From TrEMBL:
Protein name stated in the entry: Guanosine polyphosphate pyrophosphohydrolase
InterPro entries hit by this protein: HD/PDEase_dom, MESH1
Originating species: Faecalimonas umbilicata
Gene3D superfamilies: Hypothetical protein af1432
Domain HD/PDEase as annotated: residue spans: 21-128
Length: 179
């Protein structure tokens, strides 16, 4: 199942790049899958992690398609990790923070892995780009972006405080955005 998820995500994200870079987008969902695989051996959860952005960011990909190709549970996990793009950035990110606080552990794992991958990218690029880095993002404001990543940190603290991925995430958030 994981190999099929990799193949599906690779095809779905074909031609996409990470914001403001020449890095193929597929590297992000693959990294999210690896991070989740360090927290669980559940192939459906790992597959959902790899597929987490396909409904949200890939034209023509639906939950029904993922359910048919993988399983109902994988489709549900991907849907629970997807944002409603009809809402404003602040509405979406506020909803994500709230959702992660109350979501089932598997959804929280995928959310943590997704945000950790994002923070690794920020940490890699920030020394090179400096304050220009924030221009890649929709909000273009370090403080607002920091609000979001700190909110995710708080939302996941009770469930993951001793998990290495969370500890790395917390460390990167503090390094980039302060306490």
């Amino acid at each position: 199942m994981i190999q099929r998820a990799i193949a599906f995500a690779t095809k779905a994200h074909d031609g996409q790049l990470r914001k403001g870079t020449m890095r193929p987008y597929i590297l992000h969902p693959l990294e999210v899958g690896v991070i989740v695989a360090r927290m669980t051996e559940d192939e459906e959860v790992i597959s959902a992690a790899i597929l987490h952005d396909t409904i949200e960011d890939c034209e023509g990909v639906t939950a029904q398609m993922i359910e048919q190709m993988f399983s109902k549970r994988v489709a549900e996990l991907v849907q629970k990790e997807s944002e409603d793009k009809s809402k404003t950035w602040m509405e979406r990110k506020g909803a994500t923070i709230h959702h992660l606080k109350v979501a089932e552990r598997e959804v929280q794992m995928i959310g943590l892995a997704d945000k950790l991958s994002n923070m690794r990218d920020i940490d890699r690029d920030y020394p090179e780009c400096g304050e220009e880095l924030w221009q890649r993002f929709r909000m273009k404001d370090k403080e607002t972006i920091g609000w979001y990543y700190k909110g995710v940190e708080e939302a996941l603290r009770n469930s993951f405080s001793e998990v290495p991925a969370y500890m790395e995430y917390r460390s990167l958030v503090e390094k980039i955005f302060g306490k």
